[in-house]
Automatic annotation (TrEMBL):
Domain Oxidoreductase molybdopterin-binding, chain residue ranges per copy: 284-418
Compositionally biased spans, kind Low complexity: 198-211
Region (Disordered): 193-217
PANTHER family: BLL0505 PROTEIN, PROTEIN-METHIONINE-SULFOXIDE REDUCTASE
One of the Pfam families matching this protein, by short name: Oxidored_molyb
Top-level taxon of origin: Bacteria
Organism: Streptomyces phaeoluteigriseus
InterPro entries attached to this UniProt entry: Mopterin_OxRdtase_euk, OxRdtase_Mopterin-bd_dom, OxRdtase_Mopterin-bd_sf
Protein name per Swiss-Prot or TrEMBL: Molybdopterin-dependent oxidoreductase
Transmembrane residue ranges: 21-49, 87-107, 128-147, 159-177
């Protein structure tokens, strides 16, 4: 078996002289840091979405013991979700070349036979299956969600969330086993960093290196630079998704947040248009539209003119989507959620369930937590940047909450039900 180099299970099948402990260790340590950040920002992102408040999007809202950490997402600083999600998505995309290079560097191991030499070895290989499978699953579902928007049966959230835990469990075990050696390798194997003329096959054949290496065509440093260059290119074509104006146009790989938003006060990214959501102008007109607010003391129905007679307040807040893109701060004006709560008998604001005019599709309703309702910057906005909301931004009224994911900022609001959820 060992000598038949035509089979990928034979060590001699793999000829690259670059494979070896140094190359794998560098990539491994980059992933150790990067994936830890992805995991933390991912868990935070999930908490921010209020999954445990109401099972509107998520069919397993409390996530059992995996939801142990869920907490009331704060409203300060108001750019918290924008930063968290920008880091999560941009970093995830940037790490793709590193992940692929790392898998390339260890691929002979994945084919090695016999499948298991001992119970310990068998366990290690099962954990590698979860590690590699988990990594590919998380990166693929993440990229698909960002690029194509929710192409999954059911919801993206439970898939990506449960996948993250499986992946991170295997990742933690793997990191605990390998990090000490990786650090040693970086210290001990300095010579493997040398230019191509002096690049020699890695020292120990058992440790990832090919037993019959080809002559090198690129140095390990050169190969790392190639991987790093790929990451840099992805970074530069993604990071602009959180910027404005010209910089935003550099976000070639990031979705625009829907169609061209045009210019003027309403000229910022649009996720779903009014047409897509099936909103008819007949139901949003001044004559027809009524906001139905329910709470402890009953139900009130408010037309646009009734809302305009309530105190109007302003707040400068961004929209930050789970997909990673965000707008800069927009100047919203409307009625405070806490004033609406008070109208129906809640002086101490409770949670609220918000429903839109939209009849089908995702995100037509959302649950906000008491601390979000209580923030004086949380508005049922009627205006943005000094003008009435455009149909695509949620005319006649939309929710906007500081530090919350875009998905909680319901557009075309029809009904608000205050009370503990
Ligand atoms: N009714 C309704 N509200 C909605 C959505 C929707 O599809 N329907 N999309 C949400 C999502 S996912 C985001 S990111 C923001 C986008 O707001 P914008 O289109 O004004 O930028 O609106 C939110 N409000
Ligand atoms: Mo979103």
């Amino acid at each position: 078996m060992r000598d038949d180099s035509r089979l990928p299970s034979a060590p001699g099948f793999w000829r690259s002289p670059l494979r070896g402990p140094w190359f794998t260790s560098v990539l491994g340590l980059v992933l150790l840091v990067g994936i830890t950040v992805l995991f933390v920002t991912g868990l935070l992102s999930y908490a921010a979405y209020n999954p445990d408040l109401a099972s509107v999007n998520d069919k397993t809202p409390d996530k059992g013991i995996l939801g142990f950490y869920l907490f009331a997402w704060p409203t300060n600083p108001y750019w918290l979700y924008r930063l968290n999600q920008g880091v999560h998505v941009t970093l995830g995309i940037t790490l793709i070349p590193v992940l692929l290079a790392k898998l390339w560097s260890v691929v002979p191991r994945l084919f090695a036979l016999p499948p298991a030499r001992s119970l310990a070895h068998a366990l290690e290989r099962v954990s590698l299956l979860l590690l590699v499978g988990g990594a590919l699953f998380e990166f693929v579902t993440g990229v698909l969600n960002v690029q194509l928007e929710y192409v999954f049966p059911g919801s993206f959230y439970p898939l990506h969330f449960y996948g993250a835990w499986v992946f991170f469990a295997a990742f933690t075990a793997h990191a605990a086993l390998k990090t000490p050696a990786a650090v040693r390798n970086l210290r001990g194997l300095r010579k493997e960093r040398e230019p191509v003329a002096e690049t020699e096959p890695a020292a120990e054949p058992e440790t990832l290196a090919s037993p019959r290496p080809d002559t090198p065509t690129v140095s390990r440093r050169g190969a790392l630079a190639f991987v790093g260059g790929g990451s840099l290119l992805l970074f530069l074509t993604t990071a602009g998704q959180s910027a404005d104006g010209l910089l935003r146009r550099t976000a070639l790989l990031a979705p625009r947040g829907g169609p061209d938003p045009g210019t003027g006060p309403n000229g910022f990214q649009i996720n779903k248009t009014a047409r897509y959501a099936g909103i008819r102008t007949a139901e949003t007109s001044r004559e027809a539209w009524r906001l139905v607010v329910t709470g402890r003391t009953g139900t009130v129905r408010l037309g646009r003119d009734d809302l305009l007679r309530l105190p109007l307040h302003s707040a400068s807040l961004p929209i930050a989507c789970v997909e990673g893109w965000s707008t800069s701060d927009q100047w919203w004006r409307g009625v405070r959620l806490l004033d609406l709560a008070a109208l129906v008998g809640h002086d101490d604001p409770p949670d609220v369930f918000v429903e839109s005019l939209q009849r089908r599709g995702a995100f037509r309703h959302a649950a906000l937590r008491a601390n979000q309702v209580a923030d004086p910057r949380s508005l049922l906005a009627l205006y943005v940047n000094g003008e009435e909301l455009s149909p695509d931004h949620g005319h006649p009224a939309r929710v906007i909450v500081p530090a919350a994911p875009g998905v909680l900022n319901t557009k075309w609001v029809a009904r608000m039900t205050f009370g503990d959820l």
